[in-house]
C-alpha cells in the first residue's frame, strides 16, 4: 500500500515494464532490493482497508487449528505450481536494467546474485519427469544452497522431488 525509497534509486525503478507479469510495486521492490538493504517499518503508518471487490490484497486467513485444516493446506501446496518461465523473464529484464547501470553504480554483486537465482529457476523449470532422475539436480541445488537463498529451502526441494 505504501513504499518509500531514496531518490538515488528512482532511475533504476522508473520505466516500469508493462509486458511482465509483475505489478509496479513488485518491480520497484525487486530493483531496489537487488542493490540495497530493504527495511520494514514495524509501526503502522496507515489503515489498510479491504473490501470484496479489490483486485489485490491480503486474503482472509483461516486458522489451521485442526489436523484436517493442516492436511488441506499441505494438499493445496502440492497442487500449487510455480511459473518459473515468468520469473525467469522478470529476472532477465532486471539483469538487463542493472547491466546498463553497472558502470555508473557498480552493481556487479547484484548481477551475480540475480544470475544465480535465474540459474536456480532454470534448474527447477527443467527437472526431468522421473522422480529418481530429479534427485541429482535437487541435491546439487541443495548443496549450492540455492534452494535456501532463492526458494523455501528443504520444503521446495521436497516439493520438486515429489511433483
Note down, in words, how this protein is organized.
The protein has 163 residues and is mostly helical. Helices cover 59% and strands 0% of the residues. It contains eight helices and no strands. The radius of gyration is 19 Å and the shape is globular. The two termini are 35 Å apart.
Write a brief structural summary:
The chain is mostly helical and 163 residues long. The chain has 8 helices and no strands.
Mean pLDDT: 84
Let me know the number of strands.
0
The fraction of residues assigned to DSSP E strands is under 5%
Q: Tell me the number of helical segments per DSSP (H or I, 4 or more residues long).
A: 8
| Proportion of helical residues | 55-70%
Query: Span from first to last CA?
Result: 35 Å
Q: Give the biggest sheet.
A: none
What ranges have pLDDT less than 50 throughout 5 or more consecutive residues?
Answer: none
Task: Give the overall shape, derived from the CA principal axes.
Answer: globular
Order of helices and strands: HHHHHHHH
Radius of gyration using CA atoms only: 19 Å
What structural category characterises the helix and strand content? Answer: mainly alpha
Could you name the key traits of this structure?
single chain, 163 residues, mainly alpha, 8 helices, globular
Helix-strand blueprint:
Blueprint (H helix, E strand, L loop, with lengths): L9 H4 L10 H12 L31 H13 L4 H22 L2 H18 L5 H13 L2 H5 L3 H9 L1
Helix pairs in contact: 4-5, 6-8
Amino acid at each position: 500500500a505504501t513504499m518509500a525509497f531514496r531518490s538515488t534509486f528512482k532511475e533504476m525503478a522508473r520505466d516500469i515494464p508493462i509486458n511482465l507479469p509483475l505489478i509496479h510495486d513488485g518491480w520497484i521492490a525487486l530493483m531496489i532490493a537487488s542493490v540495497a538493504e530493504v527495511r520494514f517499518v514495524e509501526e503502522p503508518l496507515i489503515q489498510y482497508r479491504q473490501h470484496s471487490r479489490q483486485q489485490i490484497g491480503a486474503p482472509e486467513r483461516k486458522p489451521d487449528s485442526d489436523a484436517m485444516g493442516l492436511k488441506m493446506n499441505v494438499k493445496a501446496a502440492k497442487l500449487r505450481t510455480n511459473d518459473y518461465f515468468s520469473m525467469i523473464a522478470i529476472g532477465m529484464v532486471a539483469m538487463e536494467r542493472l547491466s546498463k547501470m553497472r558502470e555508473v553504480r557498480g552493481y556487479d554483486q547484484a548481477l551475480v546474485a540475480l544470475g544465480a537465482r535465474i540459474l536456480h529457476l532454470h534448474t527447477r523449470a527443467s527437472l526431468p519427469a522421473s522422480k529418481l532422475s530429479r534427485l541429482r539436480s535437487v541435491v546439487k541445488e541443495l548443496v549450492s544452497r540455492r534452494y535456501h537463498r532463492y526458494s523455501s529451502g528443504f520444503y521446495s526441494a521436497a516439493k520438486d522431488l515429489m511433483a
